[in-house]
Amino acid sequence: MPFPKALFAAIGVTAGAAGAVILTPFALYMAGFSAAGITAGSLGAGMMSSAAIANGGGVAAGSLVALLQSAGAAGMSAAATAGVASVGGTAGGLLGGAVGLLKRMRR
């Protein structure tokens, strides 16, 4: 039985959005942005050091480092969660659509 044309894209959007929302807190933690602060020797510590040097000793409010630390410490806001889900869903949809296209070309 042949699958509908948009099935792979729909599955990709769903999996991409859910996967991105679920995995983002883990990725933040692995990069060194945790509830306890920025982990010494991590990617986050390197980013913080670079931002502090560039800004004359402090990290600017609203900078990428500040936003990532806020998300790592307190969790993502509703707007950030929606943005992450949108990016993940778009990537998943593109991948799912490509799989569907390749399956149709293979026949």
Automatic annotation (TrEMBL):
Family: Belongs to the IFI6/IFI27 family.
GO CC annotations, alphabetized: mitochondrial membrane
Name of the protein described by the UniProt record: Uncharacterized protein
InterPro entries: IFI6/IFI27-like, IFI6/IFI27-like_sf
Keywords: Membrane, Transmembrane, Transmembrane helix
Protein localization: Membrane
Main location: membrane
Superkingdom of source: Eukaryota
Residue spans crossing the bilayer: 6-31, 80-102
Organism: Culter alburnus
Keyword Glycoprotein: no
GO BP annotation list: intrinsic apoptotic signaling pathway; release of cytochrome c from mitochondria
Membrane topology: Multi-pass membrane protein
